[in-house]
Amino acid sequence: MGDQMQFIVEKLNQEPFRKNYNLISFDSLEPLQLLQLLSDVLGEIDPKHAVDIREELPEQTAKRMLNLLGILKYKPPGTVSDLSAFRQGLVTGSKAVIHPVLHWLLQRTNELRTRAYLARFLVKLEVPAEFLQDDTVADFNKQYEELMEAFKNLHKEHEQLKISGLSTAEIRRDISAMEEEKDQLAKRVERLKKRVETVQNHQRMLEIARQLRLEKEREESLAQQKQEQKSQLFHTEQRLQRAQVQLKEMQHMVADSKPESLMKKLEEEINFNSYLVNEKIPREMESKKTSVYFLQKLVAEPAMTQADLTALESEIEEVTAQMNQLIEKRIITYEPTDSKFSMYRQQASIISRKKEAKAEELQAAKEEMSSLEKQVEQKNSQAHGLGGSEALTEDEFKQYVSRLRSKNTLYKRRRQEVAEITAEYGILQRTEELLRQRHQATQQQLQAIEEKKGISGYSYTQEELERVSAVKSEMDEVKGQTLDNMSEMVKKLNAMVAEKKASLAPVIKELRQLRQNCQELTQECDEKKMQYDSCAAGLETNRSALEQEVKGLLEECAQEESNYRYINCMKRSLEVQLQRAKEEMKAYVSAEPQERRRAVREQYTRIILEQENLGKKLREKQKVVRESHGPNMKQMKMWQDFEKLMECKRECFLKQQNQAAIGQIIQEGGKDRLVL
After folding, report:
1. CA 578/CA 584 separation, integer angstroms
2. Are 102 and 38 in contact (CB under 8 A)?
3. What gap in Å lies between CA 492 and CA 500, rounded to an integer?
4. Does 447 fall in a domain?
5. How many C-beta atoms lie closer than 10 Å to residue 625's C-beta?
6. Biggest CA-to-CA distance, the chain
7. Into how many domains does the chain fold?
8. How many whole angstroms separate alpha carbon 357 and alpha carbon 363?
9. What is the rounded distance in angstroms from the CA atom of residue 88 to the CA atom of residue 78?
10. Looking at residue 646, what is its pLDDT?
């Protein structure tokens, strides 16, 4: 309870309440203040409930709060009688009722605010069946239900968008980036169009490119469909294999099994289930009910002190001692005729315990098997989600091993082929190296011959000249083609510029006239704007003055209204008191004794007389007790002395007996020595 109040106070001191409570001030709130506080919290969840409870009747306040708590799905604890007590406590402002409600509301304010908002649109209006017979009313009701469903869908989409983390700023940035990219793409398309227009048959080429793109997209979609169908076929084949394996196993089981074995298995299962239902589960339920009963009883009792614990421990020790005494008496009075029954009872108890242990082991094994089956299903689903297959059966595993062996032999053969190719590659590499050395030797011989003839570097120069001439011829062809294209493009551009100038000449003339008109209108607009600003400033000052005046009048009106309500409440209370006084006076003055007995004065007079008589009796009893106090104390002192005297005699008697026993033992020891 203290943690609950601490949580409520902390939440009320935060935004948006800011009540500045502590535990003492919160606990000292009056019922009316608690109801107002509950109304404020409900008003924070649903703004329609932010009202002053002094302006409405208590029945209306309770009804309003109960309706909203029902919409918010608050479940008061207890049975039906507790529900009636809950309603009564809510009307009277009981702390035991309002504190749990505040704790529940403040724990989940955001969730309840959303629920109250949705209830405003999703709480269905109940239309009587006789009204739905009208076609117009039925159509409106149908439209109402459709709009409600549409609102549900829109709210779900809104919540999903909020959860997805997309903000309006990010969306705007994405839109602006997309628009910029769109402009860039449009400009690029325009440039490409202008470049393509110079090519012959460009329309036909564009049409062919469009058809090629469509065919490529169609090819991609067909490839994707093919891949999906392949995966579906693969999964279907796997399911078919598993079904065939299961069918074989079931056929094998049916072929091997006999009706007697099946009946025996079914009888074992039935016996086990009947044992669970008839013996084990009822016994466990009874023990659980007993423990729950004791726990509820323990919870219902008040907190125990150290003295209570000490008393309980002493009581337990006494009961244990009594049990031990009873067991000893039973052992002493044990009859041999009951030995056989006790032996049978022990054997029966041992067998029942073994039966319970085996039943628990079987139940644990079944639970473990079910958990392992669930884990296998989860692993299969995970493997299926990762693109793998499910767990293999025994036959599938054998097939997999045979395939693996065949692949292993194929791998060895391929590895041998790779080794042969690697050896051949080494030979070819060595051959290439020898040929390169021969080429270098031949080049050196050629250079030596050229030096002897006086034409050193002739062969290298000849190769370079041939290569340069070939490159030059290619460049000349490209330059000639480029110059022709450039000259044609310049001619086209000059023609296009001339056409544009001719078409833009009348537009430029109109633009000059429009610019002049624009300047005149801009000047006129500036003048009108200055006039508007001056008029708006004057109206704004008047408006602010009127707002201040209205605000003052509203505050004065609210103060007067509050005073009126306070005076009205005081008037009602005084009227009630006056009415009670009139009824009291009427009953007191009435000649009928029955009416006079109902008067408050008569009732209090009777109570005073009863209390005076009770006081007289108590005083007489006190006098008797005082008179007999001295003799009673003397008698008690005499009994205490007598008790001490008897205790002393008992101790002396015990000592005398001990001394006599010791003397007898010594005498017997002396006699034994004399005999020896």
Report:
1. 10
2. yes
3. 12
4. no
5. 10
6. 170
7. 2
8. 10
9. 14
10. 92
Higher pLDDT, 275 or 634: 634
Do 122 and 152 contact (CB within 8 A), yes or no?
A: yes
Q: Which two three-digit tokens encode residue 293?
A: 């009963």
Structural domain includes residue 272: no
Domain end position, chosen among 570, 586, 610: 570
Q: Is the confidence at residue 162, as pLDDT, over 80?
A: no
Rg value, the chain, Cα: 54
The pLDDT tens digits of the residues spanning 121-149 come to 777 777 777 777 777 877 888 888 888 88
By the 8 A CB rule, do 588 and 579 touch? no
504 Cα distance to chain centroid = 69
Contact criterion met (CB below 8 Å) for 322 and 314: no
User: For residue 483, is it within any domain?
Assistant: yes
Q: Is pLDDT of 248 > 50? A: yes
Rounded Cα distance between 88 and 96, Å, is 11
d(CA 665, CA 498): 156
Q: Which of 221, 4, 2, 212 is nearest to 107 (CA)?
A: 4
Task: State which residues form the domain around 467.
Answer: 463-570
Q: Lowest mean pLDDT: which of 482-486, 502-506, 594-598?
A: 594-598
Q: Is residue 563 part of a domain?
A: yes
CATH number, domain of 8, equals: 1.10.418.70
> How far is Cα 201 from Cα 555, in angstroms, rounded to an integer?
85
Distance of CA 406 to the CA centre of its chain: 53
* Highest mean pLDDT: which range of 28-32, 271-275, 359-363, 560-564: 560-564
What is the tens place of the pLDDT at every residue in 470-480? 777 777 777 66
**Whole-number Cα distances in Å, 384 to 235, 381, 388, 580:** 10, 5, 5, 84
- Which domain-ending residue is among 123, 145, 178? 123
For 664, the 3-state DSSP assignment is: helix
pLDDT digits (tens, 9 = 90+) for 538-555: 788 888 888 888 888 988
What is the chain's length?
676
Highest mean pLDDT among 106-115, 197-206, 564-573, 586-595 belongs to 564-573
Distance CA 628, CA 344 (A): 67
